[in-house]
Amino acid sequence: MIKVFGFIGEITPGMQAAADAANLVVGGRRHLDALGVPEAKRVVLGRIAPAIEAIQALGPERNAVVIASGDPLFYGVVRRLRAAGLTVRVIPAVTSLQLAFAAVALPWDDALLCSAHGNDSAPALEAVRHHPKVGLLTDGKVGLPQIVEASAGLGRWYVLAEHLGTDDERIRVLDETAARQVGDITQPNVVLVLAHHPDDPAALGEQHAISGARNPDGSLTDQR
């Protein structure tokens, strides 16, 4: 059995028990350290291919655990694991973007959700110019400075959400001027880009049948 756990801030009893019983535990170093996984049975997650090879080497009676941040079905490791022919059971956590919207009490059914984390960032950076409510997964190369530059001059508001779900969680709501001056950004973080301040009633948006699919003029966004 391969169990894939989502991780946001805290270890659940089920996650700890599964990791203790597993022959192999795959995850980020901070995840593995928090779980106290011995060196002999840990694989630090960087590139996914070596982790998949290590899991496959366990054979058909494999007992492995994979720990991934947030919801591992949302821009996560499950797609690659399934594509490699592995059968998994997923125990998800709340995605970090959901936590970020919750932190500023904004509905997110009308948001466009993008990933600049390990992906081609061009579509995500283009989205912030054309959609009034965008949530972005960031990484060390594409984060708030690049997002602000891509949306410069549009009057956007930025929610910088760092270390969500942990004791170090920090939420900052910034206009463009303030966002350009932030110098103490830490990973992991996500960024919301909004056409209105989160406290402006206009930021609530409208509920539509198609999630995240409408532009300010009501037309459908081409999400291909």
CATH class of the largest domain: Alpha Beta
What is the ordering of alpha helices and beta strands?
Answer: EHEHEHEHEHEHEHEEHE
Overall mean pLDDT score?
92
What is the CATH topology classification name of the largest domain? Methyltransferase, Cobalt-precorrin-4 Transmethylase, Domain 2
Roughly how many Å apart are the termini? 35 Å
What is the number of helical segments per DSSP (H or I, 4+ residues)? 8
CATH architecture call of the largest domain: 2-Layer Sandwich
Number of folding domains?
A: 2
The portion of residues assigned to helices is 25-40%
Radius of gyration: 19 Å
User: How would a crystallographer describe the biggest sheet?
Assistant: 5 strands, parallel
Q: Strand order of the main beta sheet, please?
A: 3-2-4-1-5
Structural class: alpha/beta
Supply the CATH superfamily name of the largest domain: Tetrapyrrole methylase, C-terminal domain
Gross geometry: elongated
Uncertain segments: 216-224
